[in-house]
């Protein structure tokens, strides 16, 4: 697996660290226990195309949102995750 | 048929042409008392214990591929019961005791070899942690010995003891640990269960659950038609989330890939199982001579049954730190299996919120050693509708209540367990 970083170009997998599914959003403070439980512990664990957060620690140190197929490891899109880095490439 | 020296001699005299099938290749009936999804070690062991211990013989095991095609054939064959936390300690020892009598119980040679498992330590802090774990094992009646440097040097003289960064200081040894022949374990359970009347149905993929008006599961839809069931047990580690989703359940589980490796065959070198404590590397030597080893999971969600280069490099670096002499060995084979990584690194054996559906999941990368114990306690749950006392903490709701069993102390981050 190689990831084409929008800032650094195509790099080998060892430069990146995996966080996980990009879909769950941290609940607001004071939300119900059920929502926190759901966010922390439950997973869709998709078999197929999914978007996830990777960190380019061995390169630009930006967080990336990678669209990847968990059945084949095929990567179809890589974009900067929302935040400061995204502005630099106009995302 | 019964296997013995006489059956072997008889078969040899007739040119090995008259062996019977190890198990019947069954076709599905309309209905069973218990249907078990997943014909791996755990599913087959469950069926065997249901039939032999709990008297429930109208049982089917449904396997989407063939017996031995999943993780049963993709592990590193290690058996041990050196766990430190309440819940794990007793359960894995139950499993260890069942390993010790498995071959007699099943009338099948599973090559169970109690050649010892040693976890090496490389710092004072790690020694203290291992001493604590060893003491926990001993007060629970499990064998454990804390070895100092001299004792390890005597036992495994060829290690790189003076590694500048990770000098070996000693190890925690469980002599009753060891290895077993993984394929023979599933063949043995399939053989013995089939002899007691269990139907083992291969190439039969579950595609959905049949529910009655109250939502109770009353059967399964499969690629070989509808099969009715009094109870349905899931033992599909690696695919738990996918099967549970068919019943509308979301699980505290992620599927990750774990790689394993075999070197070319060499003369006898490593007598037992060794683990490198300063990284993650474990190794044993098969009876054919190859070094069988592995390390961390790759770290990203995957159902692909293959891994990537960074982890191969990391695992081999661990091996080289411990035994620089293996650098000349060629890697013969490498493969990946899909692990049910739970949120605390421990398994789940429990009823589900769906009536009639029972869950055996979340084995992370420790499922092989648990095979007989898992089958026994899951059979107990299915037969009695209550948890076996040694599995009472493997609850599905422990993530909500906070009663986690986090042996590694990593928190809800499955790729770190």
SSE diagram, text form:
The complex is a heterodimer of chains A (91) and B (417).
Chain A: E1 2-5, E2 9-12, E3 17-21, H1 33-41, E4 49-55, E5 63-69, E6 75-80, H2 84-88
Antiparallel strand pairs in A: 1-2, 3-4, 4-5, 5-6
Chain B: H1 5-13, E1 31-37, H2 41-52, E2 59-62, E3 78-79, H3 88-106, E4 117-121, H4 124-139, E5 145-148, H5 149-155, E6 170-174, E7 178-179, H6 182-195, E8 199-201, E9 206-211, E10 217-222, E11 225-234, H7 240-245, E12 253-265, E13 273-276, E14 281-285, E15 290-301, H8 309-322, E16 331-342, E17 348-351, E18 357-361, H9 371-384, H10 398-401
Parallel strand pairs in B: 1-2, 1-11, 2-8, 4-13, 11-18
Antiparallel strand pairs in B: 3-7, 4-6, 5-6, 9-10, 10-11, 12-15, 12-16, 13-14, 14-15, 17-18
Taking strands numbered 1, 2, ... along the chain, how are they ordered across the largest sheet of chain A? 3-4-5-6
What gross morphology of chain B would you assign? Answer: globular
Beta-strand residue percentage of chain A: 35-45%
Give the CATH architecture of the largest domain in chain B: 3-Layer(bba) Sandwich
Overall mean pLDDT of chain B stands at 96
Number of strands of chain B: 18
Poorly predicted tracts of residues of chain B: none
> What is the fourth-level CATH superfamily of chain A?
Folate-binding superfamily
Please bin the fraction of helical residues of chain B: 25-40%
The quaternary state of the protein chains shown equals heterodimer
- Terminal CA distance of chain A reads 24 Å
Number of strand elements of chain A: 6
CATH topology descriptor of chain A? Folate-binding fold
Unreliable sequence segments of chain A = none
Cα(first) to Cα(last) distance of chain B is: 43 Å
Q: Total helix count of chain A?
A: 2
